[in-house]
Fold each of these.
Amino acid sequence: QVQLAESGGGSVQAGGSLRLSCAASGYQYSVYCRAWFRQAPGKEREAVATIDGDGTTNYADSVKGRFTISRDNTKNTLYLQMNSLTPEDTAMYYCATGAAYVCSLRATDMRYWGKGTLVTVSS
């Protein structure tokens, strides 16, 4: 069975950093789209960063220059390095995998989801 499990969330002060990880099992994920989404209370779920099967990355404007998405295909693990965090980054962060090689930015196009890891940034 396909499973995604996020880790690395927690509380951090503004300006700090966190590294999120997403371990995947039950499928070969190396050639498929993988992504990080986030959802804050009262907000819609939004794509933060995506990485295509060929390694091409894309970022939301709000996190460009601060976040870096990467993947270790051997370990089927997805990462999100988050630097210069602000209170606006506070949200539940979700790992997701699509069924295509190239990512879209649409949450509805994601096939599998993790349960989320909470990131709280204090001012």
Amino acid sequence: QVQLVESGGGLVQPGGSLRLSCAASGFTLDYLPIGWVRQVPGKEREGVSCISSSDGRTYYSDSVKGRFTISSDNAKNTVYLQMNNLKPEDTAVYYCATRDQFCRSSPPEPRYDYWGQGTQVTVSS
């Protein structure tokens, strides 16, 4: 069965960095894409990033482009989201997710079929 487990969230000051991990099981990363989605209470889900299963291409929302980097380690079946120069508006619960579709490039897709439980990222001074 498809399972996704996020980790790496926490409290960081503005300008700081965090690295989120998404450990996938039930499939390999060359079979299904992985997206990162964040949600703030009272706001719609925002697709942050996606990494393609077919060619490894990566996609980002305008709000994080240049600051966040998605990558994969196929040997570990794990996807990472390196978040640099964090801003208070990045505060959210971050989910990794997948579905049997290609990544949507612009903006990244916020709707998926399988979700992790999420990891809290709080950016505050």
Amino acid sequence: QVQLGESGGGLVQPGESLRLSCAASGRLFRPNVLGWYRQAPGKRRELVASVSSGGSTDYGDPVKGRFTVSRENAKNTVDLQMNSLKPEDTAVYYCYAMVGYKEYWGQGTQVTVSS
């Protein structure tokens, strides 16, 4: 039914920026929440940022002030602007969508921050 595809990951040096994009294919009705999670090796998946259908946002503490999440008016895409990247931001980033009681996850895109 619904698939989420991420793009924009890559290898960058500390202090640089990346922009991740997620696009939904198939039907996606009234997405209550769109956002991003990440998972580093040996760690649990954690919230990075999310935005509700009403426009409210939520950020994980490690990225507050550095990352910005946004969704287009059609509410079928969600982007993550990542500035001032740090080595500890290295992880696989997963796009997330909640529609009613259902959750959808992207395949993930690797972000590596290293000198």
Amino acid sequence: QVQLVESGGGLVQAGGSLRLSCAASGLTFSSYAMGWFRPAPWKEREFVAAIRRSGRVTFYSDSVKGRFTISRDNGKSALYLQMNSLKPEDTAVYYCAGRYGEIYYYTSSNDYNHWGQGTQVTVSS
């Protein structure tokens, strides 16, 4: 069974940093495109960042560009999200997601079929 487990969330002051991790099991991690999402009022999940299987190409939402960095370690079957210069509006439950093979729409939550349970990030002002 494919499992994704997030960790690393917590409480941080505005301007601070956190590093989220997503541990994957039950899959060949290097064969999965991966992404990070968070809830949004206008839809179930808001796209945050994504990374291709090789890790060479990444994608970011405009709201986090320049502040967040997505990365992966295929040898450890792990996905990461380094979050810097955090803002109160970044407060959310962050979910890692994956899909085997190619993803045509990296910003769409509908293109991912494996999800973790989320980790809470709270940014105080």
